[in-house]
Amino acid sequence: MTNSLTNPAQNALFTPTRIGTLDLPNRLVMAPLTRNRAHADGVPSELMVRHYADRASAGLIIAEGTTPNAVGQTYPNIPGIHTDAQEAGWRRVTDAVRARMGSPLLERSRELGEGRMFLQLQHGGRNGHPDTSGHVPLAPSPIALPENVETPSGPQPAPVPREMTAEDIRTTVADFAAAARRAVAAGFEGVEVHGANGQLLQQFLAENTNHRTDGYGGAPEQRIRFAVEVVRAVAEAVGPERTGLRISPNVTVNGMAEGDTYALYRALVTELAGDGLAYLHIVYADQDPELLKELRGIWPGTLIGNPVLTREDVAGDGGLRKGGLLHAAGADLIALGRGFLANPDLVERLREGAPLNLVRDKYLMYTGGETGYNDYPALARTAA
Predict the structure, then answer these.
(1) Would you give the distance in Å from CA 198 to the centre of its chain?
(2) CATH (domain of 37)
(3) I need a labelling partner for 92 at 20 to 30 A (CA). Which of 6, 164, 222, 239 fits?
(4) Residue span of the signal peptide, if any (predicted)?
């Protein structure tokens, strides 16, 4: 029996597509993954240069959560994009990816947008610690994360964040826009605003972390205001076709409890639907098929689904056995995280129906160094 993965004509995952003005050779996206491999000052390391270059066959790479300012740092060794040194470090990454994609004339390939990389902008809000960032965390309300946070000296109780003032909000929105401009200057084709997984934007969205009584709190239409302002400031800075948004409806990570998820995301997606953004990226998109279908009906542009799956879940006809995401819900691309972590040649393996490497030890994902990061074998080395 023929494996549908070996025949690109029978599987939409391997067909070309387009986001914004960027042509992609396939619909497999490397999802952004925090891996704590940057230097202590937030400058991307040579480990990161190799890691992303090795995965250059992805249709699109969304590089890991990167802080737009110092106070937004979450964990140790998270990259930033708010200093000249950090920008230069990311330039080494994008140059290496372009070279691996077969674009040796780097300056010309930058002009033509031949890199297929976006950078995720992530502000941690209350998820930080002064021992890591040097700053008291900011958040919509002074409500601490109900768990420990990682610091350079190990896990510590989360501090109570400082409630953001109107000036803090304006400054943070401007910092996102400035970070987006730096990202494009560093060679990325665009940026993804991280509105998911309990980071700052979702802290404004969720009713248990947003107790504000001004125009940024209360009803869903007001709780979406900060996210909308950030996305629009970024789009104005670099262009809507270079701007994506990641959301995670009803995901409870980092102590989130949104309360009225359907109303919240109907309002958010409806508000941004006419802005011409590059894409909407939905985390765990297969966990609530009804909401996914509803948001797909509202969203007129490219939709990236980020499900939890293995190779056996990727089926013919461009679908997924878990919910038939591409086909049934209308997702245009599929983002995979741990699959790309453990398989630098994931696209080739899926296309050929080859065995997959499994993530060996989740602990190694965050410990630094080559182990559990750059030592997963590609097919050729496996055969050898």
Answers:
(1) 13
(2) 3.20.20.70
(3) 239
(4) none
Look at residue 133 and tell me whether its pLDDT is greater than 90: yes
User: What are the tokens at 107?
Assistant: 């300056």
Return the structure tokens found at 240: 């809507």
Share of the chain above pLDDT 70, in %: 86
Residue with token string 């809000």: 125
199-257 per-position pLDDT tens digit = 999 999 999 999 999 999 999 999 999 999 999 999 999 999 999 999 999 999 999 99
pLDDT at 319 over 60: no
Q: Catalogue the long-range contacts made by 325-330 (C-beta closer than 8 Å, 24 or more residues apart).
A: 325/285, 325/286, 325/292, 326/12, 326/13, 326/27, 327/12, 328/289, 328/293, 329/285, 329/289, 329/292, 329/293, 329/296, 329/305, 330/293, 330/296, 330/303
Answer whether residue 140 shows pLDDT above 90.
yes
Domain of residue 77: give its range.
Answer: 4-383
Separation between Cα atoms, residue 164 and residue 160, nearest integer Å: 12
Phi-psi region of 372 (alpha: psi -120 to 50; beta: other; left: phi over 0): left
- Checking if the pLDDT of 265 tops 80, the result is yes
What gap in Å lies between CA 16 and CA 32, rounded to an integer?
21
- Which distant-in-sequence residues (6+ apart) come within 8 Å of 27 by Cβ? 12, 13, 14, 15, 17, 59, 326, 332, 333, 334
Q: Cα dihedral sign for 23, 25, 29, 30? A: negative
| Gap between the Cα atoms of 71 and 114, Å rounded | 33
What percent of the chain lies above the pLDDT cut of 90?
74
- Mean pLDDT, the chain, rounded, equals 88
For residues 33-47, one letter each, b for 16 or more C-beta atoms within 10 angstroms of the residue's C-beta and e for the rest, the string is bbbbbbbeebbbbeb
Instruction: Provide the H-helix boundaries in the chain.
Output: 46-54, 84-100, 106-112, 130-133, 166-185, 200-205, 220-223, 225-238, 261-272, 289-298, 325-328, 338-342, 346-352, 379-383
In the chain, the amino acid numbered 145 is: L
Q: How many structural domains does the chain have?
A: 1
What is the predicted pLDDT for the residue at 314?
A: 46
